[in-house]
Amino acid sequence: MRLNIIFVGKAGQGPNFLSEIVANGLIEHGYYVFYSRDYQSLIRGGHNFNALTVSDKEVYSNDSKVNLLVCLDENTKNMHKDSLAKKGIIIDFVNGKGNMYYAGAVFKLLGVDFKILENSLDKLKNFNENIRDAREGFNKEKRNNFALKKFEKKNLSFMNGSQAIAKGAIKSGLEYYYAYPMTPATPLMMELGQMTLDKSNKHKVIEMENEISVILTAIGSSSVGGISMVGTSGGGFDLMTESLSMAGMTEIPIVIYLSSRPGPSTGVATYTSQADLNLALKAGHGEFSRVVIAPGTPDEAIEATNNCFYLSQEFRIPCILLGDKHLGEAKNMTNEDAKLLEFNKAIINPERFNSYESDKTRDNIATEDAKVTIKNFEARMKKHAEIEKECSKFERIKIYGNKNSKNLILGWGSTKGAILDALAEGKIDAKFVQVIFMEPFPAKELKNEIKKAKKVVLVENNATGQLAGLIAEKTGFIIEDKNKILRYDGRPFFADELADEIRRRLK
């Protein structure tokens, strides 16, 4: 069983809050849920919607066809009626009704106990008004089309990638988080800011005037032993790249959260993309070591964040946690049993680092001596082999589906959810290999899987197939253009549409 619901209205009408209330009710009713957000760069008005998928099995993505359309304004029906599935249901816009009226109607249609909704609303302000509206919607809705059977509640958390990264950072001993607001990285700043209210957390969240100040201040904190992290999106990361190189030269640990959105320039500011992989791998001048990790789900995000802090402190390097809007804001059910690594802070003498090439035998003063330059460079490059050896202990790829299949699907990051659902719901015989570490790249592991495959299909949220380019560079294997499934309209993949695309390429 798999149902898709969308809540549609203007910014300010609360489709996000409404979907949260319904999602939590369905979780109490014993179901798995997943929801994603689609919103414009507006504070009021426009056209926003949340897509919620509910299933009696684990679910990681949405579908293109909608079983229940909830209209919070008069324009919704005309804009979304073509996406309605056969036997799809519409809850029409009723002028003057608040979003709890629609929550009541949805609970009735789904057959979820009204008491669950009442208990949720009891925790909020304006309880009497909200419960009155919800009960009116519940009573006025006469249909009970879905009548979902009740199951035992799953012992899982319900969170998005931003919440997961915040948890991973706190568990890793974060002391300073610096940021300048930029969608879609801003939710992490908000989560960490909220977590400062818990006095058991010792970190500080500091908003700077621009991205250059963000990374320079973080490097300054790190240089005196503070465990520091910054967050931004592609345009902000561009401004940080000179300082990224300085961190590489001075060997100061720093963790950077790069949450991608469509570019170039301002792009489509509130939508999703995987077009910043090359940026994460290549940004900065000169040659220095870095680690780039791209989790695909919230539980992986907790662990990947911890891995970034561990590796940055262990090797005194910049580590980039690569995500996107879909990972950061889509919410699903997950466990929090991440394998967390403990580490000691890097020992740094702030009086002995220099952004110039420097002579470490002479108080770290700047030098142009060729022999010293070679010695320093080779010491920095030696880290490549050490990092590769250490990271070989990590789970740098994950394998799903039929592990004996000759059909191989390759993907990374937030495409993971749609790929898993496409294979399961579409009953597709294929092995899915998710790449998690982009640097150091698991070339040996990938070569082994590619060698066993007869057909290889790539899935990415960008226009050029950046993972395909990285695979070609590191393994020599070329994925044909006809076998690349690429989406670059700022939207995530839908599981049902992706299943059709995969089947077409596996014929």
Structure description:
- This protein has 17 helices and 21 strands.
- The protein is α/β, with parallel strands linked by helices and 507 residues long.
- It has three domains: 2-140, 3-Layer(aba) Sandwich (Pyruvate-ferredoxin Oxidoreductase, domain 3); 159-391, Rossmann fold, CATH 3.40.50; 397-506, Rossmann fold (3-Layer(aba) Sandwich), CATH 3.40.50.920.
- It has a seven-stranded mixed β-sheet with strand order 5-4-1-3-2-13-6.
- The radius of gyration is 24 Å and the shape is globular.
- The relative contact order is 0.10.
- The mean pLDDT is 94.
Summarize the structure.
This protein is of the alpha/beta class.
Write the layout of secondary structure elements.
Blueprint: E1 2-11, H1 15-28, E2 32-38, E3 45-55, E4 66-71, H2 76-80, E5 84-91, H3 99-110, H4 114-121, H5 127-140, E6 157-160, H6 161-171, E7 176-179, H7 186-195, E8 204-207, H8 211-223, E9 228-232, H9 234-250, E10 254-260, H10 277-282, E11 291-293, H11 298-315, E12 318-324, H12 325-329, E13 331-334, E14 358-359, E15 365-366, H13 370-391, E16 397-401, E17 407-412, H14 415-425, E18 431-435, E19 437-439, H15 443-451, E20 455-460, H16 466-475, E21 484-486, H17 495-506
Parallel strand pairs: 1-4, 4-5, 7-8, 7-9, 9-10, 10-12, 11-12, 17-18, 17-20, 20-21
Antiparallel strand pairs: 1-3, 2-3, 2-13, 6-13, 11-19, 14-15, 16-18
Helix pairs in contact: 1-3, 1-4, 3-5, 4-5, 6-7, 6-11, 8-9, 14-17
The biggest beta sheet is recorded as: 7 strands, mixed
How far apart are the first and last residues' alpha carbons, in Å? 27 Å
CATH superfamily of the largest domain: Thiamin diphosphate (ThDP)-binding fold, Pyr/PP domains
Q: What's the CATH class label of the largest domain?
A: Alpha Beta
**What share of the residues does DSSP label as strand, in percent?**
15-25%
What share of residues is helical? 25-40%
